[in-house]
Amino acid sequence: NYYGMLDQLIASKGRVFFGTWWSTLSGYVNRMRGYYIAKHKLEGYEDGTMESYYFFPDERKEQMKKYYPVKKPIYMREFPTSWLDIDKGIEEMHQQQ
After folding, report:
1. Contact between 9 and 32 (Cβ < 8 Å)
2. Is the pLDDT confidence value at 2 over 80?
3. Burial class (CB within 10 angstroms; exposed 0-12, middle 13-18, buried 19+) of 83
4. Are 54 and 19 in contact (CB under 8 A)?
5. How high is the mean pLDDT of the chain?
């Protein structure tokens, strides 16, 4: 049964995504959205933000609209370090600093 994987692929290409904070499906959709936004240099690619929201819990609704560095606990969400500058080599990263 491939329905879950197909749901993730389809949801990752939408303009806006609403997911659930503790959901691994939502987390992976956001990661794929991040890869897509970075690859195509869409709005938010420079700072790792995207049009994704969590409909529950309310205080987490706009977590993906702001940049957050990796911090514990890490299993509830994806962090922009997963997709920011993943195609750059070490030399390029060092030259930017």
Report:
1. yes
2. yes
3. buried
4. yes
5. 85
Match 């987490």 to its residue by tokens. Answer: 60
Whole-angstrom Cα distance, residue 76 to residue 89?
29
Please work out, in degrees rounded to the nearest 5, the angle formed at the alpha carbon of residue 17 by the alpha carbons of 12 and 21.
Answer: 105
| Buried-state track 43-66, b at ≥16 Cβ within 10 A, e below 16 | ebbeebbbbbebeeeeebeebbee
- 36 is written with which tokens? 């897509």
SS3 40: helix
DSSP 95: H
Closest CA to 33 of 16, 20, 21, 57: 16
pTM value is 0.80
Residue 69: how many CB atoms within 10 A of its CB?
8
